[in-house]
Amino acid sequence: MPPRRRSQPDSPEQAALGEAVRRLRQQAGLSQEELAERVDTDLSQVGGIERGTRNPTFVTLVRFAAALDTTVGAIATLADEIRS
Length: 84
What we know:
By secondary structure, the protein is an all-alpha fold. The chain has helices spanning 12-27, 32-39, 43-51, 58-67, 72-83.
């Protein structure tokens, strides 16, 4: 039996970061699968980050930013706005 996915974010900050990634992905017109391919990661990684149950490394954030044609700073700013 596969492990259960965590459904609750680990923290409000991770939830906001995930929501920021989700919004930027949707604005770019990408599916989670397409973003995963661009970032060269698993679909489960993208889903976990968007749900706030996975905490991405800085390198992962840099890759996400590049794939979404934005910057890590822009992702962080949006996450901060969402959290406020």
